[in-house]
Amino acid sequence: MLKSIINKKIYVAGANGMVGSAICQLLNKKGFTLNKKNLLKVSKRELDLTKKVEVDIWLKKHKPDIVILAAAKVGGILANNQNPVDFLLENLRIQNNLIESSWQNGVKRFLFLGSSCIYPKFCKQPIKEEYLLSNYLESTNQWYAIAKISGLKLCEAFRKQFNFDAISLMPTNLYGPGDN
After folding, report:
1. How far is it, in rounded angstroms, from Cα 113 to Cα 168?
2. Yes or no: domain 8-165 corresponds to CATH 3.40.50.720
3. Rounded-to-integer distance, Cα 135 and Cα 152, Å
4. pTM (whole model) above 0.90
């Protein structure tokens, strides 16, 4: 598979975060670099993903073939509980803007990274895809989870209606360099 994408431009949204930086490191090891201009990344200061117009302009200018969405507003239990509107709206804006603009700007493949928190609190183990929306979410991170469910469903809708090659992955556990 890697040989089929080595000449493609990949944009990693959230490249400076824990997950995004790990993805970029892996892509670097496989030959993707900023110097070759086949790995694209941009700081939050340079591109505000919550602003649709900025996202449209950036994608139109840089024309990535593949977009990996690893950007999100994240935080712990306390932050989620104290700022539910912030977690819901910011994550919805980021993913909606990037998913829709990617489709509108001819991105060939879109990868949405979600979270296993989208599954019910007392989900049967091992977790299966069909368990999504089968029961109540964990209340301490439900706002983040609802946004992630919406992103997954938006990718699914674009795939169904427009045959947009958008897929979603739900990492089960994240830890490592850059974790707080």
Report:
1. 6
2. yes
3. 17
4. yes
